[in-house]
Amino acid sequence: MKSLEDRMSAANTILAPYAVPHEGTLGRVTLEAPDSTRYPFQRDRDRIVYTKETRRLMGKTQVFVSGESNDHNRTRLTHTAEVVIISRNIARALGLNEDLVECIALAHDLGHPPFGHAGEDALNDWMKDNGSSFEHNKQSLRIVEVLTKHPPLQQGLNPNREVLEGMMKHRTPHDNPEDTIPRNPSLEALVVNIADEIAYTGHDVDDGLREGILKMEDLNQIELIQCAQARKTHASLNSAIVDALVSDLYEETDRQIQEQNIHTLDDVYERSDNPVRFSEQMRKKLDELRHYLKENMYLHADVLKGTEHGKHIVTTLCKHYKNNPNEQILTLQEANGGDLIEAIKDHVAGMTDDYALATFSALPQQQEGA
Ligand code: MG
Fold this sequence. Notes:
The structure is a single chain. This protein is mainly alpha-helical. The chain has helices at residues 4-13, 40-49, 52-56, 76-94, 98-107, 116-129, 136-147, 161-168, 187-210, 216-219, 223-229, 237-259, 265-270, 280-298, 301-323, 327-335, 340-349, 353-361, 364-369. It has a single domain (4-369), classed as Orthogonal Bundle (Hypothetical protein af1432), CATH 1.10.3210.10. Helices cover 62% and strands 0% of the residues. Bound molecules: magnesium ion. Magnesium ion binds at residues 79, 83, 108-109, 196.
């Protein structure tokens, strides 16, 4: 077998000159000896996948609250898997670092609370009442940097800084992370950002149709759906939507990289505009579909019914724990700086839907009311 160095330098030769190289350039926050067989980002990926937080994504709502829907709908975990494959496909086609996009994609939703965006809203409202705020991107970063343990490290996974920065800069219309880093994001970070939007647009249409909330005859009025339908070779509407979006993305991103004179990784970090994007026409089509999904699916009474109950559960749990912190919360509080509100947030955000529901049902006030 060739040495790790030889394999890495051979692998670097097939990357574009503006890709993040396999050995990274920013290093880890805490210095570690290199692994004997895996590239640095492969090692980061493995650490992320082995966390309990990754396994809990299986029990967290994407759009449809579990228990009320069938087993074929996306969970946070299968959504994450789809973001990973779309990110890797785009990265490979553009000559970018597939291992790095995989890390960012795998970690991007680790901090998502139970009950999807409703759970996130509820936690944010409660945190605001307590002088702070909640946003799942920041929580994902907190998990990777602080909360999850990778022995013998004292805290966090200590990934390469490119992974942390990619998570900070991972941004969708749902997200609003603070800009606290000096560089522009890598193209790899931008790829995951847009792959997330591609993934949830495609799979939400798929899940919405299966649930009977969306109707094909209505969707057929939307330009992006017509565009996708014209690509007859695809097995499903989801994959046709993904393909229509990704094909446009390749062309436009290629054009942007040339127009913006991006030749090196330094050019990427110093550039002023986001080159990983759809053409204007495709952006308009996608916005039309996003708007349609918002009005007709995310705000649909059946979807809201499930998520409103989730909101109530999250808020009730937070309020209860403020007066009656449990053992796990006290441990979190002691381990991470002594802030009770933050420890409650960390505990509740980490719950799966089912765990939150069971904990809520076992609260004394629920028992009295029963
Ligand atoms: Mg996501």
